[in-house]
Predict the 3D structure of the following.
Amino acid sequence: MGTIAGTSVDTDVVVLLARASGAALRTANAALEPLGLRARHYAALTIAAESGGVAQRQIGALLGLDPSAVVTLVDDLEGRGLVQRLPDPDDRRARLVTATADGIRLLERAGDVAREVRQAALGALSPAERETFVALLRRVVG
Amino acid sequence: MGTIAGTSVDTDVVVLLARASGAALRTANAALEPLGLRARHYAALTIAAESGGVAQRQIGALLGLDPSAVVTLVDDLEGRGLVQRLPDPDDRRARLVTATADGIRLLERAGDVAREVRQAALGALSPAERETFVALLRRVVG
DNA sequence: TATTGTTATACTCTATAACTATA
DNA sequence: TATAGTTATAGAGTATAACAATA
């Protein structure tokens, strides 16, 4: 489990992940605040824009969010006019979340911010190490 | 930012970290539940046991927790008789959190559980990849 | 003046159950 | 029967400000 040596601890993977995630989220939320977005909204808006229309269920699956949390998330974005819920012609239960022109414009403005956030999150690593880290992290998430 | 290809997304690092952390925490909390512990309590108890007495401030620094959250955490552990708050002879503001005999006994019982959790969290990676990943993750956290 | 621990408080996040309308 | 979305709600986590005791 780890032993204390001086002031440093051979910390648990779970703790390390929680710390890295918390720090990255705080950085992202602070950086996106001037645009009125949180990391979660930015991610969902990106998915909506790039997909050209996704079911909420899929947003939840991609972002690891509960369906009920996706409702709140899309409500926020729709309330700001950044996305629309359109009927899915293939499945009348589902509603396709699509980015509006305003949403796409905001995403473009947020591009630089997002780049800075990614850099800050992995600032301690070299470019090659970042690639390695993200590749492994993606496999960890599955 | 990433482009959609089929059903997979070149997801943001922030999202990946949040997903990995969430999944690891859920696994850890579920596995430790029979022992009446959450991941956070387990981590703090480990630090207390291995250090032989830590200031709450340091627990917060190691675990990335707000000082006020550490109060609640140590209250829980103390209420269950797993740690004690002893006066620090070198600084009368601080209180040294030390594991009790019960706390150490519980930690020993939790050892196997912790091993399983770490394995589950990084189950998709080979042993060598796990080492690489944890080393990089530790540098990301700083 | 700054720091440790503490309390109170507000806010966000997460998770579940129950419901509807479809499939 | 199962699934997509929704609502309500409860519980956990996070963050801030203010305070007493001590440095």
